[in-house]
Write a structure and sequence with these properties.
about 40% helix, three-stranded antiparallel beta sheet, about 160 residues, alpha+beta, 5 helices, elongated, single chain, 50s Ribosomal Protein L17, Chain: A
């Protein structure tokens, strides 16, 4: 009997399955949405909701628990910075599954896994990059702007040799 055994097997070893879901959870928090098969998406939702719940707690122990699952520190810090504000009013339902239909090739059911809630505003303290404009005239203007170097002056040394 399979009582009290949570999770899916997906016809792979436990180490392969854990590594796959760690990578998928990292990609989900990095990009906000990922496309995967329906069964994997449902299991990924369990992983992601648990990690967001830990991030909402925000203490050191929760940070270390999340770091043991997600191996990219910048993704973990982004999650901890956003989770408290983005999911403050909800206790669950941090992800949304949208069915996309069968995959071409093997007809596996595909789903889109997205993070819910309002995305955080982009950091506005960084100035926007200015676009470089190409000047008309090309090489002629560059040649005109080149500075001609003065010839080196000869310096007399006490021995009488010129350098």
């Amino acid at each position: 009997m399979r009582h009290r055994k949570s999770g899916v097997k997906l016809n792979m070893t436990s180490s392969h399955r854990d590594a796959m879901f760690r990578n998928m959870a990292t990609s989900l928090f990095k990009y906000g949405r990922i496309k995967t098969t329906d069964v994997r998406a449902r299991e990924l939702r369990r992983w992601a909701d648990h990690l967001i719940t830990l991030a909402k707690r925000g203490d050191l122990h929760a940070l270390r628990q999340v770091l043991s699952v997600l191996r990219e520190k910048d993704v973990v810090h982004k999650l901890f910075k956003e989770a408290g504000q983005r999911y403050a009013d909800s206790n669950s339902g941090y992800t949304r599954l949208t069915k996309l239909g069968p995959r071409k090739g093997d007809a596996a059911d595909l789903s889109l896994v997205e993070l819910t809630g309002q995305p955080m505003a982009v950091d506005e303290t960084k100035p926007a990059k200015e676009k470089k404009t190409k000047k008309a005239g090309g090489k002629k203007e560059v040649k005109d702007k080149m500075v001609k170097k003065a010839p080196k002056e000869k310096i007399e040394t006490p021995s009488g040799d010129a350098e």
